[in-house]
Amino acid sequence: MSSGDSGLNSTPPPQESDTGWSGIDFSLAGRRLLIAASDLIEVNVCRSFARVPGVQPWVAGLTGLRGQVLAILDLHAYLNGGEPMLRPAPVQVLVFSRSDTLYYGLVCSEFHGIKKYAAAPDGDTACDDAALAPYVSGVIRDDDGERWVINPGLLIDDANFMQFSATAASA
Amino acid sequence: MKACLKIPQSGIAVLPVLLMTVGIAAAGLVAWQVLASTGGASALTWVGLAGIVASLLAAGVVSMQGTANQMPADNDPPPEHLVAAEPPPAPVEVAAVVATPGPDPALTAALDAAQQQLDQSVAEREALSGELSVVQNRNAALIDAVQATADALARAREIVTAQAGGGSNAAPKERAASGVIANNSREVLDGIDSALATMQQQAAASAQRLVRVSESATETVELLSELIAYADQTEILSVNAAIQATLAGEAGNGFAVIAEQLQRLAGRSGDVCSRVETLSNLVSNDVSEAVSDNKERNAELARSKRLSGDLRTALNELTKASGDEVAAPGASLPPELLAALDAAGEKLSAALSAADEGDR
Q: Which of A88, B71, B72, B295 has a CA that sits 20 to 30 A from residue A102's CA?
């Protein structure tokens, strides 16, 4: 990791090059999703993390990653009204960031590895899941069906999602 | 008659013949008691006696044929419950997996160790299956033979009881012949007891082997968990390498190729883990079944020992009822009965030869 900045933008254009498009394949509560490999810093396994009182249900806890703070975030809990996924440690997290000082780790139910596609995601198709749609940048269609591509930059730009404190939100 | 009661030395496979002989002898004894008590042989009595001998003979031949079928020939497959549901997979090509660039030495060592452990477990399992098959066939034959003898003696006891006092009324010469039969029957029972003791020793040895196989299976599972952890780490490492290559842009294209190779290596490691897990589960299941079979076999052995004791008691009672005479030189049975028993002996000898051929 030479830099903590993975170049996340709120509206990144789908990348297409001679080598195709690479996405990280993962499941979130049984739903298969993708994240562009270029949007991530790394995939990590958190063997333990500290739970924090007074935070939103989707903030599972905090841990350290090479001297920086890594917030463990439960996207499923956020999208489903705060019902957290049951996940005994260790958990696999997809790490992304917009600065060198704070990392975010998106918890995934199951990690399926990196997948290469000949073409970039289709950014013109609207997501049929209203809760997920604001964070989707495109869709990949293959033999397994449709897989929505999550853009972590859109999550960071969402003030509601980034409101970690439960007390501040209630106030 | 003497030839029929000879105790074979070739092993437990001929036990049914011996036990059948005991049955015939017992039937002869009973018939003789009946004759002695009634003072003569009516045609109806001889027909009934011939029927008893023929039925015992038929049961013995059927038993021998069943035994011959149960005895494992070299080319016979082992019993179905001791055979894996599907043939063991070909040896895992661990060398091919670790020969690709950049393998983790610890992963390679763990793969090799797991492969060796599995090979050893599979070999032990196959050897154990063969031994258990032999023990099972022997035990089944023994159980059948002991049961047939018990039935024969039970019938004899019923007839003797019905002819109460007949034994004491018999002539001394005839009672002496009864003693010959009783002594020969005791020799057969001694052979049965000896065979039971041997089988118990074999069962104990099989139990020890089972313990060793179980320990090997446990070690394999422990190695497997370590192997799976290595494979998972390798996969995540390959993904992170691919992410870094992507972030590096054009400069990372070369590294992306290496990352892709690393990912393939991780995938193959995962496949190896799956196969090892399948084999490990197979071994564990076989061991569990073998343990269960061994317990059943021990229970059957215990039952056989009880039957043997009951038979000995019954034989003693029968001897007592006939006057408890010791064998006397020149003692003989009625000629008609001797002829029937000789014929039975010849047929049993033929069945024994057929069984020996089957064993080969």
A: A88
Chain B environment of A40 (Cβ under 8 Å): 243
Chain A hits for B247, Cβ within 8 Å: 2-3, 6-7, 38
**Whether the predicted pLDDT of B191 surpasses 90:** no
pLDDT in tens, B196-220: 888 888 888 888 888 888 888 878 8
User: What are A12's two structure tokens?
Assistant: 């990144």
Shortest alpha-carbon distance between residue B236 and chain A (Å): 7
pTM for this model (two decimals): 0.52
Q: Tokens for B53?
A: 């001998």
| Chain segment B249-260, per-residue pLDDT in tens | 888 888 888 888
Judged by CB atoms closer than 8 Å, whether chains meet at A38 and B247 is answered as yes
Task: Find the DSSP H helices in B322-359.
Answer: 335-359
> What ipTM was predicted for this assembly?
0.80
Chain B residues near residue A1 by CB distance under 8 angstroms: 244
The predicted pLDDT at position B132 comes to 65
- The one-character DSSP state at B8 is P
The closest alpha carbon to A32, from A149, A152, A117, belongs to A149
Which of B234, B243, B271 is the mutation pick for testing A, counting most A CBs within 10 A?
B243
Cis peptide before A90 (omega within 30 of 0): yes
Q: Which residues pair with A95 in a beta bridge?
A: A42, A105
